[in-house]
Specification:
This protein has 366 residues and is an alpha/beta fold. The protein is built from 16 helices and eleven strands. Helices cover 41% and strands 17% of the residues. The strands form two sheets. A six-stranded mixed beta sheet has the order 4-3-5-6-11-10, sandwiched between helices. Strands 2-1-7-8-9 form a five-stranded parallel beta sheet.
């Protein structure tokens, strides 16, 4: 396929794999942060081609997976209001809350709509001035600029019947929390290329320095990931923990400063609870005071946070890189993409859905 074939070249992939086998003289554990990277790794069997000395573990790089259950419950509560049109990206509709999900709420009569852009919601709000239109604003720094633009435009256009239920999370604070955990076994990181396209990678330099861990900003195609692993192992073997950029075709150190400026105007940094990980200080974005009139929690009441219920689902351990999805007692039975028990089985970026799609089903057929 044009523009992709060059990043899926078999001969070059073999060269990278040979380099990894030659470079790795010790046991190394590397975490890929992004769910998109995880899907490429599992789909193309990259982890199975690495030497036994090199272990890949999977990070909390799926925003759908880490959205707190209380915000799912709040979304359902808002969606069930008679005057509300609740809008969301499609992968949030099946994420389980405490009792149910948004797709079930829609089947029971709630006006829940799937959109492809938060700006679509502004048109819906303008066409339905007597109703409240709420967008479920979820994601890492990648989607934050687009969602910020929706609030910015709503303010400029005077669209008062539009609001955002915000559940944005930030990658660097989560990495700091993981690396500071006494259970941590991560020795190298492959950072998410799309997040760094927006934010740059200057924030990661402190993490590399403080935790003495190499961080390689990496893309999502097989050759991107293999080259990222080569760069990471080389640093590990040389005991040279710095930040390097494999994804140079998209990422600069400073990132997209115009997008960052819009985010700073519309959002402010807040503490955020992550599903499976608990509350992480300064790890999320909420609407700033200037834009609080567009905050769905300001209009409909705050989500009520509580301790997560004990469940056999081990999504927390999976997202910390402590266990693999196939070690979960629910994986494959009863937890499947059609009837997910855990959030990581729902999203297209979820690690459990990757294992189910590319490993479990193929093994079941063989």
């Amino acid at each position: 396929m044009k523009y992709l074939d060059e990043y899926r070249d078999e001969q070059l992939a073999r060269r990278y794999l040979n380099a990894i086998h030659k470079l790795a003289t010790k046991q190394w554990t590397i975490m890929e942060v992004c769910g998109g990277q995880t899907h490429s790794i599992i789909k193309y069997g990259i982890d199975e081609m690495l030497p036994k000395k090199v272990t890949l573990v999977h990070g909390p790089g799926c925003p759908v997976c880490v959205t707190a259950v209380e915000l799912i419950d709040k979304a359902i509560e808002i969606a069930n209001q008679p005057n509300v049109i609740f809008c969301s990206f499609g992968d949030m509709l099946r994420v389980p809350g405490t009792q149910t999900d948004l797709l079930t709420a829609r089947a029971q009569g709630a006006d829940v709509r799937m959109v492809y852009s938060p700006l679509d919601c502004l048109k819906i709000a303008q066409a339905n001035p007597q109703r409240e239109v709420v967008f479920f604003s979820v994601g890492f720094e990648t989607t934050a600029p687009g969602n910020a633009m929706a609030a910015y435009q709503a303010s400029r256009l005077g669209i008062g019947n539009f609001s955002l239920l915000v559940s944005h999370v930030l990658v660097p604070p989560a990495l700091k929390a993981l690396l500071s955990s006494p259970q941590n076994r991560i020795q190298g990181l492959l950072a998410a290329g799309h997040v760094c396209t927006v934010m740059g990678y200057w924030e990661y330099e402190e993490i590399a320095r403080v935790h003495r861990i190499p961080i390689v900003v990496t893309g999502f195609e097989p050759l991107d990931i293999l080259q990222g692993i080569v760069m990471c192992i080389r640093q590990l073997e040389e005991q040279r923990p710095i930040v390097t950029n494999q994804y140079t075709r998209s990422v600069t150190k400073e990132g997209n400063q115009q997008a960052q400026g819009l985010m700073k105007e519309v959002f402010q940094v807040v503490s955020r609870k992550w599903r499976g990980l608990g509350e992480i200080p300064a790890s999320g974005l909420g609407l700033s005071t200037q834009y609080e009139s567009f905050d769905a929690e300001f209009k409909f009441g705050r989500a009520q946070y509580h301790d997560e219920k004990n469940c056999e689902c081990i999504v927390g351990e999976i997202l910390q890189g402590l266990k693999k999805p196939n070690q979960c007692p629910l994986f494959g039975n009863p937890c499947t993409p059609e009837l997910p028990t855990g959030a990581a089985m729902v999203s297209a970026e979820g690690v459990c859905s990757a294992y189910y799609r590319y490993r479990y089903l193929s093994e079941a057929k063989s």
